[in-house]
Amino acid sequence: MAIHCLGRVLVAIFFVVIMIEPDPAVGLRKSDLLTINGHDPVSVPTTTLVGICESLVIVHGYPCIEYNVKTEDGFVLSMQRIPDGLVKGNGGNNKQPVLLQHGVLMDGMTWLLESPDQSLGFVLADNGYDVWIANSRGTRWSRGHASLDPANPAYWNWSWDEMVDYDLTANLDFVYSQTGQKVDYVGHSMGTLIALAAFSQGKLTDRIKSAALLCPVAYLSHMTTAIGELAARAFVGEITTWLGIAEFNPKGKAVADFLKTLCANPGVDCFDLIRSFTGKNCCLNESTVDLFLKYEPQSTATKNMVHLAQTVRDGIIMKYDYGNGAANIMRYGEIRPPIYNMSNIPHDLPLFLSYGGQDALADTRDVGLLLDALKFHDGDKLTVQFVKDYAHADFVLGVTAKNIVYDAIIAFFRRQ
Ligand SMILES: *[C@@H]1O[C@H](CO)[C@@H](O)[C@H](O)[C@H]1NC(C)=O
Ligand SMILES: *[C@@H]1O[C@H](CO)[C@@H](O)[C@H](O)[C@H]1NC(C)=O
Ligand SMILES: *[C@@H]1O[C@H](CO)[C@@H](O)[C@H](O)[C@H]1NC(C)=O
């Protein structure tokens, strides 16, 4: 059973479905899907807007500072900083900064949903790190722009290429400018893709001390579940239709209708979707799943979804494909979009990769392709962790993740 990143999108979407019939313990049933039809997505309860620091960090007694970071292409991204743990002064005066980058359709809350002794954001703060949390363009707290409103389709004219070129750069530059130190990086799913893409171009490696990549997503070609394939095909096959909807809002009616169509296909199993998409998560806490439902999922650009689907189709990691030679030549000066070559990642950049045997999204065969591309990496600069029982969500929300994954990340950071 294999599917990957694009499935994550659907996972998030299906969490919304559950939200409509609020009984996460039961999982998704066919009857839930039927209720989407005619349901006014606007009436889905949304969280009161109080900010991430206020709603998830300060309540636990940790200090937290909100920042706005401007990208070169005009986006205003929110960032949270947890400069200290519960025990003050741990880590000395010159604390090591660490930047946490969430995946697609998620936001910075990803790192804070578990209890403080189980969530990576707090665990790092308590281990003496200066913790910085990124929120990608288009998500709830990062919808500002110098001149464009999210209601304007032009606001959504980007894919993960722009997250590589602008968001990641702006965030790392900002942390570097505030702390004067090279940054440790942690990414989950698409947060790994944008980092790997940047590193493969030799970018930002002067800002990074080391990088921990959870559920590394680069190659995406091993999608084998029926619904995942259909979704990916729909995205690349109906570009014009989809680009008419600039914002990909998992809480919106267009996305609900899209899913209904997919589920109507013969051979598509919409009965236990969470499990078939993320894999068999061993270690989720029901309370955390409830919190997840409360805060996520978040919007992204439809163009970003199309770009991810192109990666599935092509089995090659490239910039966004405008779909015809002339348009690509206009944009890139070449018929085909430029490739991100993972073998070009500087061989001495310290990397920690952690992936799960049950992860239906970051498929082990796709991780295998990435590891193959990294085979000339300096042996002592590449640490690989394989967690046999873990599926996709366990890495950020699992109750055992602290002992299994986070402690290993901290040990890796300290070795560099
Ligand atoms: C999107 O941006 C590209 C340049 O990156 C531009 O050529 C194109 O006209 C823009 N499209 C829209 C709909 O704004
Ligand atoms: C699950 O979360 C709740 C609420 O944070 C907590 O009280 C409980 O101890 C957690 N269970 C486990 C197994 O961590
Ligand atoms: C990527 O780079 C490696 C090493 O520089 C090279 O051998 C390989 O052919 C490149 N791959 C592609 C798809 O260009």
Tags for this entry?
alpha/beta, Rossmann fold, two-stranded antiparallel ribbon, 38% helix, 14% strand, globular, binds 2-acetamido-2-deoxy-beta-D-glucopyranose
Describe the 3D structure:
- With 416 residues, the protein is α/β, with parallel strands linked by helices.
- The protein has one domain: Alpha/Beta hydrolase fold, catalytic domain (Rossmann fold, 3-Layer(aba) Sandwich).
- Helices cover 38% and strands 14% of the residues.
- It is built from 16 helices and 11 strands.
- It has helices at residues 5-20, 30-34, 52-57, 120-126, 160-179, 190-200, 226-237, 239-243, 253-263, 273-278, 286-295, 302-314, 325-332, 364-373, 394-397, 401-415; strands at 65-70, 75-82, 96-101, 129-134, 144-145, 183-188, 208-214, 247-248, 300-301, 351-356, 382-387.
- Strands 1, 2, 3, 4, 5, 6, 7, 10 and 11 form a 9-stranded mixed β-sheet that branches. The protein has a two-stranded antiparallel sheet with strand order 8-9.
- Helix 7 (226-237) crosses helix 12.
- The two termini are 36 Å apart.
- One 2-acetamido-2-deoxy-beta-D-glucopyranose (NAG) binds at residues 154, 157.
- The site of one 2-acetamido-2-deoxy-beta-D-glucopyranose (NAG) has 2 residues, from loops.
